[in-house]
Write a sequence for this structure.
């Protein structure tokens, strides 16, 4: 069984150039599959953002993986990140908006797993 988590639509901080999701599998024995989708909502409708990494990654036991966007277009001012997450407490995901130089997380563009909304998509 799995679930979708969403940041909801977030306003982009002026210093945010990249989006990243850190997915951690704390299970000591089993791998877990996590998928991430990033959307530009600036037009009022979702437009998929290209990503550096595959949208689905199998995370080995006791390891983490990163999902990264390419540099965000300058016209993007609203975005959403959706995560297809195993309904398992051993997997933890966090979303960050990062700066262009030091890849520092930008205040206001971070969503920890407890901040993410559970949504039902068909």
């Amino acid at each position: 069984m799995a679930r979708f988590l969403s940041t909801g639509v977030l306003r982009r901080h002026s210093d945010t150039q990249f989006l990243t999701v850190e997915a951690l599998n704390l299970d000591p024995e089993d791998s877990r599959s996590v998928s991430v989708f990033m959307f530009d909502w600036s037009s009022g409708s979702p437009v998929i953002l290209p990503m550096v990494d595959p949208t689905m990654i199998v995370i080995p036991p006791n390891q983490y993986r990163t999902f990264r966007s390419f540099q965000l277009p300058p016209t993007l001012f609203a975005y959403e990140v959706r995560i297809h997450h195993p309904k398992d407490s051993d997997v933890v995901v966090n979303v960050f908006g990062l700066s262009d130089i030091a890849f520092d997380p930008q205040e206001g563009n971070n969503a920890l797993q407890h901040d993410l909304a559970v949504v039902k998509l068909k």
The chain has a mean pLDDT of 87.
